């Protein structure tokens, strides 16, 4: 049952259900105010709470071409309508283990069955579970628009608001490198059952470029990359031999990441006492450090 | 777990295999008769208030205060009233009566007039032809506020300017027991803080109000105290009681009691003024803002003991944050102060309790009220004392337990069974759950869940014990009475009683009682409305005791009517006749007939009341026989803690409980499991966050209830069946005491796992980081 007023003509509901990406782009072009909807796990909650009132919807449920993935030059081209459930399966986990782990941890089964990768990116919630993984993988978003699927945007640019979707554009695919190495995604929550993350850490190894890439989710509006810590720890790894690091090095990496993401307040210029972080923030930093230490340890084990 | 699942699976085909053969089903007291509405609830066809519909109904929306404390300078409803589709807008000006809302104290204006005193206080309401229109119109009402300083720290309430004409101190109880100057060889001090648990009923508040031709109103709602709600509503609306009628619909979750009245008042007002049926279905956020929560409490304790660990004196200061309005706070405080020492024999006690007004969200009745907050504190003290003396925590408790015949600090002698020592021994002797190292690692559900970040190497296991108690029924002279009618016609009996089935199992119990007394298997429980005689509110085991008692008496009166003519005919006393399985037989087997034949086509009715022995209010030094009955439990919690992340998972809760008598084993187990799970929620996650009086994240993502993965294995190790002779059937209340004791037991177990003091509920992750490791 709809809880929306049918009587006001300006809110008349327009719903398009395109079957192809081109049709979807055309539908968006025809009604520029239309909002694309895939799983609806974020959008419909906002609509039901009266926070969003889309003038029209473009349903993406029939776009079969966006529900799978393809291979392209050592990369996987992931459809934006891939559900979290699909990404959780072992075949996907063999390709991009951290993304699969993030998808498995995202909410209860009902949400994972409906919620999509593209939706997670566009909603850009701070606690979005796939976001730190995509940031660590340095994923590229392929945007479809009136001029075709030509525009490419790094995921971090979109999340940081440096580059936004333009009217009539639709997130179509996400290009992710296939690194053929271990990856981890760890998430701290407030309970044992499904919950939003308090902090999450994705660690991916790139043995070809001899890089360790790490992103921290949920502690800031967008995933944070501790680049100095990444470079420092990559220099310690014996890429040609056993990759494991000493517990002290893992712990130091964790602290490095924690301090980078949740720095101490700056010492005031007038030489006054620096303010102390509250205990809850210090605990969050400790949580980030623990997750980073464990995540890297498991990736190198 | 598996055993239960198998049992449930085999039970269903057995029932299907013998349709119509009612003898196959359990019946009567002591059996696991299934609730009549169980199938409908499981399959989603049981009607709740939110499902109701009436021709031409309007939708209501309520405008709530965004400020915790503000003066209302003016309310302009013109724009809202002029919106297309809007039928009626009401503010305090339309409230005809001069009464207030609230359960024991009616100090809350039905709609705010000159002041708003908490975030979410209702200010105005709108009825429109569509819920969205109503919501938009409510948002279009212009209220001019002068924001005032909010008093949100209960400790500052004493000195603050009065927030209400009745003053800021709602009640102070100074309890003095024995020698206040006594001292022990050992003293431990502790400060404890208990958070704001929300009842979070799974179905948010909703209701349908239909205007009556006589100017009154009929309300369809999930009330758990229909007569009380009717009386308060009539007073607020300026109507006679008989002009207001409440029909009770399916209750979607109630912790014994449920407070929908704050929603029903604007609804009734809108229905009366618009002349149309009006429906309201609260959003989850409104639900959190609109109903009362558990009293957040600050407690300071000093326990005095001798070297052997025998308690000498308990000193306590208990400060309860009542929020803006008094409601039940005086009664809640009485429970907190009376049970401040717990189920222990204490020769001397000095307890001061205060319930004070603040601009925080309103606090009220949530299962285990008062008793739960002090349990977490006195059990924390017992752990602290044990550590100080080097005595095993369970052994220290065993040396101090209360028993039947011992006095409470209030001076009341415990006359009911108090098998505390037996309960404690049972949980101490229960086998420990297996360590995960003994099984495959995949089976180990770590703190943080299957996709969590826990590291088995950082997980520590802790074991903690707690004992606790609650009172049953109303206290301090509350008149507890219930009336029930039993009717038999043919092979069918009907129970009419205004006790509301909230899921607590009253309707099933009523059927079992009638089956037992009259030997009639098919028993129906009639729907509840306010035309029935008063049965009182739910909670604290009231309906098992008072309404169950009334049903039993009424059924026995029918039985006498049934057997008397037979007995006279055969020249024997009616006591020599027994009824079982629909047959009446005499002691010697000479007479044998069926209930149906004995009825001779007549319809037999009887109505009876049950009223337990009276209680008295606590006097000026906190003494008096304030309680009708008490129930006790012992819990052993086993937890796993990731001592680096501070993540806690409760592995197992072993509970031994004083139940008086088991009336329905399966229902009783379900009540205990539910109570333990609610207690685990209070211990770990359930706290409604309020920042400077403003509620934050009022949704089920921000307010984390236990999920199936958070619910621990509940091992009921012992049900002590020592009948309470003054209670009907000898049964005690079962739902509240697990909620009271479980949080304290979880805290004790986390203390054991981490070596940290753990003096705050819910336990925050930073408080569960181990002291030996984990500092990064």
UniProtKB/TrEMBL annotation, chain A:
Gene3D superfamilies: 3.30.465.10, CO dehydrogenase flavoprotein, C-terminal domain, Uridine Diphospho-n-acetylenolpyruvylglucosamine Reductase, domain 2. Residues 7-181 form the FAD-binding PCMH-type domain. This is FAD binding domain-containing protein. Keywords: FAD, Flavoprotein, Oxidoreductase.
């Amino acid at each position: 049952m709809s809880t929306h007023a049918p009587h006001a003509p300006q809110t008349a509901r327009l719903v398009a259900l395109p079957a192809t990406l081109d049709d979807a782009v055309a539908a968006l072009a025809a009604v520029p105010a239309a909002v694309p909807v895939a799983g609806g796990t974020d959008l419909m909650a906002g609509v039901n709470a009266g926070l969003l009132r889309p003038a029209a919807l473009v349903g993406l449920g029939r776009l079969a071409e966006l529900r799978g993935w393809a291979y392209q030059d050592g990369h996987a081209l992931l459809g934006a309508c891939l559900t979290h459930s699909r990404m959780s399966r072992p075949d996907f986990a063999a390709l991009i283990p951290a993304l699969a782990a993030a998808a498995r941890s995202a909410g209860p089964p009902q949400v994972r069955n409906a919620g999509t990768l593209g939706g997670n990116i566009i909603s850009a919630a701070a606690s979005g579970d796939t976001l730190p993984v995509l940031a660590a993988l340095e994923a590229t978003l392929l945007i479809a628009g009136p001029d075709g699927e030509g525009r490419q945007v790094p995921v971090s640019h979109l999340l940081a608001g440096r580059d936004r979707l333009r009217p009539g554009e639709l997130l179509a695919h996400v290009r992710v490198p296939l690194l053929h190495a271990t990856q981890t995604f760890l998430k701290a929550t407030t309970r044992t059952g499904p919950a939003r993350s308090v902090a999450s850490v994705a660690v991916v190894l790139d043995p070809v470029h001899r890089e360790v890439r790490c992103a921290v989710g949920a502690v800031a509006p967008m995933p944070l990359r501790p680049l100095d810590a990444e470079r420092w720890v990559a220099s310690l790894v014996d890429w040609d031999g056993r990759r494991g690091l000493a517990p002290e090095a893992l712990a130091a990496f964790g602290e490095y990441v924690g301090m980078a993401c949740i720095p101490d307040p700056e010492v005031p210029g007038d030489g006054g006492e620096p303010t102390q972080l509250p205990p809850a923030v210090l605990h969050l930093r400790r949580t980030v450090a623990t997750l980073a230490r464990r995540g890297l340890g498991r990736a190198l084990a | 777990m598996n055993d239960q699942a198998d049992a449930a699976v085999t039970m269903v085909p057995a029932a299907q295999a013998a349709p119509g053969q009612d003898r196959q089903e359990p019946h009567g007291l002591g059996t696991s008769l299934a609730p009549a509405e169980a199938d409908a609830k499981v399959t989603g066809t049981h009607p709740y208030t939110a499902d109701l519909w009436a021709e031409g109904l309007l939708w209501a929306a309520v405008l709530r205060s965004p400020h915790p404390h503000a003066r209302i300078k003016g309310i302009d409803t013109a724009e809202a009233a002029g919106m297309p589709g809007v039928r009626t807008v009401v503010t305090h000006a339309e409230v005809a009566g001069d009464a207030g809302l609230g359960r024991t104290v009616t100090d809350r204006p039905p709609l705010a007039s000159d002041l708003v005193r908490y975030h979410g206080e209702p200010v105005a309401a709108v009825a429109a032809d569509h819920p969205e229109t109503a919501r938009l119109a409510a948002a279009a009402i212009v209220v001019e506020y002068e924001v005032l300083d909010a008093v949100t720290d209960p400790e500052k309430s004493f000195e603050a300017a009065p927030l209400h004409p009745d003053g800021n101190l709602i009640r102070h109880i100074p309890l003095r027991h024995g020698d206040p100057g006594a001292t022990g060889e050992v003293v431990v001090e502790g400060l404890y803080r208990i958070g704001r648990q929300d009842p979070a009923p799974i179905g948010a508040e909703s209701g349908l109000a239909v205007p009556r031709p006589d100017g009154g109103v009929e309300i369809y709602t999930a009330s758990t105290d229909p007569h009380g709600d009717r009386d308060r509503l009539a007073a607020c609306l300026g109507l006679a009681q008989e002009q207001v009628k409440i029909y009770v619909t399916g209750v979607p979750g109630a912790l014994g009691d449920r407070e929908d009245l704050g929603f029903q008042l604007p609804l009734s007002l809108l229905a009366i003024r618009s002349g149309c049926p009006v429906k309201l279905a609260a959003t989850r956020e409104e639900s959190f803002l609109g109903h009362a929560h558990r009293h957040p409490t600050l407690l300071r304790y000093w326990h005095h003991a001798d070297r052997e660990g025998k308690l000498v004196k308990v000193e306590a200061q208990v400060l309860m944050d009542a929020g803006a309005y008094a409601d039940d706070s005086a009664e809640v405080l009485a429970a907190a102060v009376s049970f401040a020492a717990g189920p222990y024999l204490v020769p001397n006690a000095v307890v001061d309790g205060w319930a004070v007004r603040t601009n925080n969200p309103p606090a009220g009745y949530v299962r285990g009220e008062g008793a739960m907050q002090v349990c977490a504190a006195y059990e924390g003290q017992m752990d602290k004392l044990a550590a100080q003396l080097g005595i095993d925590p369970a052994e220290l408790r065993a040396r101090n337990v209360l028993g039947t015949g011992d006095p409470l600090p209030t001076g009341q002698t415990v006359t009911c069974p108090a098998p505390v020592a037996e309960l404690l021994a049972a949980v101490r002797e229960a086998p420990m759950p297996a360590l995960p190292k003994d099984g495959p690692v995949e089976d180990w559900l770590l703190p943080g869940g299957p996709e969590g970040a826990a590291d088995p190497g950082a997980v520590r296991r802790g074991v903690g014990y707690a004992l606790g108690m609650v009172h049953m029924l109303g206290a301090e002279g509350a008149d507890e009475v219930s009336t029930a009618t039993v009717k038999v016609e043919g092979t069918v009996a009907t129970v009419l009683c205004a006790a509301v089935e909230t899921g607590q199992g009253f309707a099933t119990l009523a059927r079992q009682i009638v089956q037992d007394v009259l030997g009639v298997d098919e028993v129906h429980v009639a729907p509840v409305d306010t035309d029935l005689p008063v049965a009182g509110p739910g909670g604290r085991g009231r309906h098992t005791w008072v309404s169950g008692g009334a049903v039993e008496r009424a059924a026995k009166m029918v039985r006498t009517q049934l057997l008397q003519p037979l007995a006279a005919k055969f020249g024997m006393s009616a006591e020599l006749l027994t009824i079982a399985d629909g047959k009446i037989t005499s002691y010697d087997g000479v007479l044998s007939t069926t209930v149906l034949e004995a009825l001779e086509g007549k319809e037999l009715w009887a109505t009876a009341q049950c009223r337990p022995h009276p209680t008295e209010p606590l006097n000026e030094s906190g003494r008096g026989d304030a309680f009708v009955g008490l129930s006790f439990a012992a819990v052993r919690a086993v937890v796993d803690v990731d001592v680096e992340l501070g993540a806690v998972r409760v592995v197992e809760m072993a509970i031994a409980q004083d139940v008086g008598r088991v009336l329905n084993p399966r229902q009783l187990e379900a009540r205990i499991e539910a109570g333990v799970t609610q207690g685990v929620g209070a211990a770990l996650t359930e706290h409604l966050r309020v920042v400077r009086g403003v509620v934050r994240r009022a949704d089920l993502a921000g307010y984390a209830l236990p999920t199936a993965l958070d619910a621990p294995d509940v091992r009921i190790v012992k049900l002590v069946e020592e009948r309470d002779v003054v209670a009907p059937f000898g049964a005690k209340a079962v739902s509240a005491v697990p909620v009271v004791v479980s949080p304290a037991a979880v805290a004790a177990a986390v203390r054991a796992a981490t070596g940290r003091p753990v003096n705050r509920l819910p336990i925050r992750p930073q408080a569960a980081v181990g002291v030996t490791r984990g500092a990064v």
